[in-house]
Specification:
five-stranded mixed sheet; 297 residues; alpha/beta; globular; 8 strands; 11 helices; Nucleotidyltransferase, domain 5; single chain; three-stranded antiparallel sheet
Length: 297
């Protein structure tokens, strides 16, 4: 069987039932063999008449959705899969209103909450750090059409952008809103030690925090690749979300942009769908309170 569906027709046929979706999650979460979430051993047996499995070593009762984004969800897995397939479309950005229409959800709030849960799995700074030559840029999100309620300055929130440079081209990026003195913390999460960190020649206090860190810090007076990413972000944000971005939840809109930018060369909706499912089964559950408060995992 193919790792992921290639077309809409294949998707509709393959994930028509809850059982089919659950089987797919099982193969993605445990591609070789079952691993007990408690004792990490593999011996298990299915529980009669349910989707649970018992670890025969410690007796822990586990399900394929427990401890993942799908834990205790009130939405069917078939609906989850249809929504993730829609979000994975590389040609069309999706917002909560569009998702509500596509999935036939009863309220805008449900679609909004669902999308924010999914955005939380798109980027993991502590797991996917950049390396070698990385350009870093501090900027504001201020620009035509960008309206972000809840921020304290007219210029908008301060954004840190790190762009990996491979053979003169932009590779993967990481983006976060930060405080003026928070650049060093951002770089330590986003960039592997011993990398070359390049900033522009601007006299910005935040850049001095990189001097003496575990990086080779260079200043270059030229338009950087990270500044190109900033321009793309300012274009994408109002186009995709029509300026309706809360300052409290800004990090997660930036995560969505980062995911899409880092997979910009991928034209396969099925492959992006598979990537999102892989991430969804590897993160802790996201609860409604976390979404509302904008809390990071």
């Amino acid at each position: 069987m193919k790792e992921y569906p290639q077309t809409q027709e294949e998707f509709d046929e393959r994930f028509a039932t809850e059982e089919a979706c659950r089987d797919y999650l099982w193969r993605v979460r445990w591609p070789r063999w079952f691993q007990c979430p408690r004792c990490h051993r593999s011996a298990h047996r299915p529980a009669a008449g349910s989707s649970f499995h018992y670890c025969t070593e410690c007796g822990h009762q586990a399900s394929v959705t427990a401890g993942t984004l799908f834990e205790r969800t009130h939405m069917s897995l078939t609906t989850w899969f249809r929504g993730i397939w829609r979000v994975a479309d590389p040609k069309w950005p999706v917002n909560a209103l569009a998702l509500q229409r596509v999935l036939g959800l009863g309220s805008y709030r449900t679609a909004w909450t669902w999308l924010h849960k999914l955005r939380r799995v798109m980027v993991h700074l502590r797991h996917d750090r950049l390396s070698d030559r990385v350009e870093v840029h501090l900027t504001s999100l201020a620009g035509p059409g960008v309206r972000i309620p809840g921020v304290r300055t007219r210029e908008g929130p301060l954004i840190a952008i790190a762009a990996e440079v491979k053979r003169g081209l932009i590779g993967h990026v990481r983006i976060e809103p930060i405080a003026v003195d928070g650049l060093r913390t951002f770089v330590s999460r986003a960039v592997e030690p011993c990398s070359v960190v390049i900033t522009d020649g601007a006299d910005v206090d935040g850049y001095t925090g990189l001097d003496g860190a575990d990086y080779t810090h260079r200043r270059v007076r030229q338009y950087s690749r990270a500044q190109q990413v900033a321009s793309a972000l300012r274009t994408w944000l109002p186009d995709a979300h029509h300026g309706g971005v809360s300052g409290k939840h800004l990090s997660y809109y930036l995560d969505e942009f980062t995911f899409r930018f880092n997979h910009r060369a991928c034209r396969s909706q099925g492959k992006l769908f598979h990537h999102l499912i892989q991430r969804a089964v590897r993160v802790k559950p996201v609860h409604y309170g976390d979404v509302v408060e904008g809390a990071r995992q």
